[in-house]
Write a structure and sequence with these properties.
This protein is α/β, with parallel strands linked by helices. It contains 7 helices and 15 strands. The strands form 5 sheets. Strands 11-10-12-9-13 form a 5-stranded mixed sheet, sandwiched between helices.
Length: 224
């Protein structure tokens, strides 16, 4: 199974002196095994991925790809295997915040100019009664929650989970993801539109990996 991948986006894919590793690498290998194949990786920059697929250089793209409706004339996507949507992170003890509705009258930390910031502004316009406090990055926003400067932070799930992983390595469990994801941003495998049998086989294999808990194990290994 010829896999196109951008090896510059950890924790999904990173190629260095230690080799190629990441969520998408382990996922592709597990998929190939389910299909009785071997995963063969070819590296591309993000801008070259779809051209590599449509010109037949690879069979699939497994590279943290968001489903893009404008691509579906030539590209078919598998069922999602990961959701990079926004999540709320709040203190684990004594926090009144379990979902967006609990934020009325409270302070929400976000990264300036991020999707979390844009979403928070939209929620405000729709009547949510919280104050927004902006920071230069996800780490700064989450540190502010830990320091009591804000009641919760709205961040993408990848950055949030990596931050919590670092805290856990320092035996600091003072913050956690709370409630359900606030938004959804699914990642999927891309195939050529005419490769219907391949897409069906991939979907079946993904479903088996999910049912067996193997996909969760791969994701948690790299993110949690």
């Amino acid at each position: 199974m010829r896999v196109g991948i951008d090896p510059t986006y950890p924790p999904f894919a990173l190629a260095d002196d230690a080799g190629l590793r990441g969520i998408d690498v382990d996922f592709a290998q597990a998929l190939a095994e389910e299909l009785g194949l071997e995963a063969q990786f070819t590296y591309f920059g993000y801008d070259g991925l779809y051209d590599a697929l449509t010109t037949g250089q690879v069979d699939v793209l497994i590279s943290a790809l968001v489903i893009l409706p404008e691509k579906t004339k030539d590209i078919a996507y598998s069922i999602p295997y990961f959701d990079a949507g926004l999540v709320l992170i709040a203190p684990t003890s004594g926090s009144p915040v379990a979902r967006i509705a609990n934020l009325d009258g409270k302070i929400l930390a976000v990264e300036l100019g991020s999707i979390g910031h844009v979403t928070a502004l939209e929620l405000q316009r729709n009547g949510s009664g919280f104050d927004i406090r902006t920071y230069g990055g996800v780490s700064e926003a989450l540190a502010a929650v830990g320091a009591g400067e804000a009641h919760a932070a709205l961040v993408d799930s990848i950055s949030g989970r990596l931050y919590l992983r670092e805290m856990k390595s320092q035996d600091d469990l003072s913050l956690a993801i709370v409630g359900n994801p606030v938004t959804s941003e699914p990642f999927a495998i891309a195939t050529r539109i005419d490769d219907r049998i391949l897409k069906a086989k991939l979907n079946e294999a993904i479903s088996r990996l999910i049912a067996a808990g193997k996909l969760t194990t791969i994701i948690e290994h790299h993110l949690d």
